[in-house]
Write a structure and sequence with these properties.
about 200 residues; Rossmann fold; 5-stranded parallel sheet; globular
Length: about 200
């Protein structure tokens, strides 16, 4: 266990609803470190944008001067070498900010726990920095419906999931599991129960 407030790692498949669960935990008094948000902010930083232009050309920057995430997703989606290149550039920057936020939250008396909401929690070793892991489960058909609303195809989902640790492995490594197939009220009750158990130690 980490000294101080418990650190909770959120894990699960793409489209499982990790952000929804993170929102419930935030309402219960947890501080959420959202790796996706940090990733977006770092992608838009001048230093990272400059490097991406050098690697992949001007098309990676949109008309608004921010990173064009759709272009970047196409570049790295099917190319493990390019994906690793991007991760090696961005992940150290995200990790530094994550540690800064965690330090702030540990001394904030209003914060009851710290949640790490990171798509690659296991893949980048953040699971080892957590006191416990919560797996957000959802049927594949449900997850596919959700990611279609983001413009993803079934092939996109399959390709990205193949680049990550298998879901069965993530599920087996988790300390707690919540199911998010349909009933949002039931999901909230599950999250409240898990959070109470974590705080009770």
């Amino acid at each position: 266990m980490n000294p101080g407030k418990p650190i909770i790692g959120l894990t699960g498949g793409i489209g499982s609803g990790k952000s929804t669960v993170a929102g419930f935990l935030r309402n219960l008094g947890a501080a959420v470190i959202d790796a996706d948000r940090l990733n977006h902010e770092e992608l838009d930083s001048p230093e990272v944008l400059q490097q991406l232009r050098l690697w992949w050309g001007a098309e990676v920057v949109g008309p608004d001067g921010r990173a064009d995430r759709e272009v970047i997703r196409r570049i790295v989606g099917g190319d493990a070498a390019q994906r690793k290149r991007l991760e090696d550039l961005v992940h150290p920057r995200i990790d530094r900010r994550r540690r800064e936020l965690a330090d702030q939250y540990q001394i904030d008396p209003s914060v009851r726990a710290i949640v790490l909401d990171a798509p690659l929690l296991h893949e980048v070793g953040l699971d080892r920095k957590c006191d416990c892991l919560v797996f957000v489960d959802a049927d594949r058909a449900v997850r596919l419906d959700r990611v279609r609303s983001r413009g993803w195809s079934p092939q996109d989902l399959e390709r990205f999931e193949k680049s990550q640790l298998p879901l069965d492995t993530k599920r087996d490594r988790a300390d707690y599991r919540v199911v998010n197939n349909s009933d949002i009220a039931d999901l909230r009750r599950q999250v409240e129960d898990v959070f109470a158990r974590i705080l009770a130690g």
